[in-house]
Fold this sequence. Notes:
By secondary structure, the chain is α+β, with helices and mostly antiparallel strands. The protein is 34% helix and 22% strand.
Amino acid sequence: MKILxxxxxxxxxxxxxxxxxxxxxxxxxxxxxFDLPESEFGINIQNNFEPKFVPISGKQKLISGLKKMSKESxxxxxxxxxxxxxxxxxxxxxxxFPSKKxxxxxxxxxxxxxxxxxxxxxxxxxIDKNLVEAQITRRILxxxxxxxxxxxxxxxxxxxxxxxxxxxxxxxxxxxxDLEIKNFQKEEFWELFCNVKTKNFETFQMQLSKKNGQxxxxxxxxxxxxxxxxxxxxPEQSNPFPERSRREQIxxxxxxxxxxxxxxxxxxxxxxxxxxxxxxxxxxxxxxxxKTAQSLYExxxxxxxxxxxxxxxxxxxxxRVSDKAHHLALSYIKNVFGEKYCxxxxxxxxKKSGIQDAHEAIRPVDVNITPExxxxxxxxDQYKLYNLIWNRFVSSRMSPEELSQITVEAIKQEYTFExxxxxxxxxxxKILYPNKKDQITIPENLKIGDVLEIVxxxxxxxxxxxxx
Length: 468
C-alpha cells in the first residue's frame, strides 16, 4: 500500500514528488475544501455558535479524487501549512477518511528541502485541535461581522460590498487618524545653520543648538533675524581681531567630544518586517512580497534539475532561529569574512505579549546557497527577495559595526553651534552592504581653540508635523 500525502498547493506537491519515491502519492487540496455556505448564514448562534461547514463550490471533483486515492493507501499524511489555516484544512481533510483501517497523521513541513522533508515524515504528529478551534472561531467572527455590517455598506455606498472583521476596525482607526491630521494645528519654528571655514580653507556645516548652555527654540523669523544680527557683530571689548571689521563673522571651537558607538544588526525577518523592507527597498506590494516568498518557500529548480525550497515558512511573528541554522551561519561568516565578523551573541528580541513564536524567523534554509549562486535560475523578483532575506539573516549573526562619533561645538557669545558625524572604525555586519559609505565632512585636524570663519548663515523655516 502506498502513502498518500496531501499539501495545499500544486507547487509544493511538485517539490515533494522530486524527493519521494514511488511509495508515495502526492497531491494538492488547492487550499480549503470546506467552508461556511455562501447562500446562508451558516452559524447556529443559539447552539453555542455551531458552524455548518459544507464542501466549497467546485471542489466536489477534487474531494472525490482524494477519497479514491486514499483507497490505495493505509496511511494519509496531511502536510498543509503550519499555521491556523493549514491546521483547519488538515482537520477538514481528515473527515474525508473516516475508515478505522486508515491512519491519518499530521506532518509539519517548515522547509522544503530533502533532509527536512524526510525528517518531518518520520516525526508525524496529530492535528492540533486548539489551532483548529482558533481558525474556526476566526471564521465564525468573519461571518458574523460580515453579515452584520455589510448591509450598512449597501445602504451607505453601494450594493455588493462586504465588511471584514479586521478591515472594518482598521478603517475606523484610519478615519480617526485622518480626522486628527486634518484638525492638526501646525506651529512655526526655525533652525539656523551656517557654513564655516577653517584656516586651511576646509568647509563644513554647523547648526545652532544652545543659548547660554540651554537648548534653543526659535519661534519665528523675527527671532532668528535678531540672532543673526548678534552673531554678525563683535562687541568692541571682546573683538579678538581688532584689525578686522567689527562685522566679521567668527566662531571659536569650545569642545570636541569623541565617543565609541556600536550599531547592532537587525534581527531576521518576521512577516511584517519583510513586507515593510520589501516595500521600502524593492517597491514590492504586500501581496507581491508574499506571493514571491511563497514560491521561494515551496521550491524552485536550481542547477542540474535540483529542486529545493530556499526559505523557511514565511508567515511568522518570531525572530528566533534554530541552533543549527545559527551555527551554520557563523561557520559561513568565519570562512568568508573571518572570525572577527562573527556575532558573539544571538540577536533575539524578547518575546512580547501576543506573539505566538510558533515558527522560526524567515531565513534561508541553507546559507551556503548564496543569492549569486541562484541568480541564473530565479525570476528577477525571486532573486531580489531572496537576496534581501539572505542578507538580513546572515547579517543578524554578524558582529556590530563599530563607530567613532565626533561632536564639535563652537561658540560666539552666548550661542553654541555644533555638528556631529559618525565614522566607521570596523564595518561588522555592514560589510554585506558595501554601498553605505561615510560622508566625511568634519576635518580631522580640528582642536579646541581653533577659529572658524562663518561663510554663510542658512535660516530654515519649518513647521511641526501632524501624527503619521
